[in-house]
Amino acid sequence: MPRFLPSALLAACLSSCLIGAALAGEPPPSGRLLASNCAQCHGTNGKGPGFDRLAGKSANSLYEELKEMQAGKEGDGLMQRHAMGYSDAQLRALAGYLSKQR
Ligand code: HEC
What is the pLDDT of residues 82-97, one digit of tens each? Predict the structure, then answer.
């Protein structure tokens, strides 16, 4: 059996489970799926451990920081590049979601 098969099956299951969950119940809170992209460096829902803790900061300051990083005015190259991948609406959704985490 090719070695990639188990992970391909797992990926297929994961995505169909996510779709199933999305169809079955309420949609996840706005920003939550986007924020899962930040977990590897800022912890689940921005609660650490990791780099700067994001959970519970004000939505405005998170948004402003992300916009400054997107514009290359703040942060190191890593966050600048990461911030560039999001639209304005996505940054607001991220900031709003993370600000509600405790
Ligand atoms: C690959 C690692 C990595 C990922 C993924 C990542 N970050 Fe960061 N982030 C950093 C590092 C390192 C810093 C601190 C250095 C800096 O400011 O650039 C930082 C800093 C920040 C800051 C500034 C916090 C402060 O108090 O100044 C914000 C806001 C932020 N990240 C938001 C996010 C969001 C939102 C995501 C997901 C969309 C994300 N980051 C994904 C590594 C990451």
Answer: 999 999 999 999 999 9
Spatial neighbors of 37 by CB under 8 A, at least 6 apart, are 82
Residue 54 has pLDDT above 60, yes or no: yes
Q: Which atom of ligand 1 is nearest to the CA of 57?
A: 26
- Spell out the domains of the chain, with CATH numbers in brackets: 30-99 (1.10.760.10)
68/15 Cα distance (integer angstroms): 33
Residue 88 CB–ligand 1 contact under 6 Å: no
Q: How far apart are CA 81 and CA 97, in angstroms?
A: 21
| pLDDT tens for each residue of 21-33 | 556 677 777 899 9
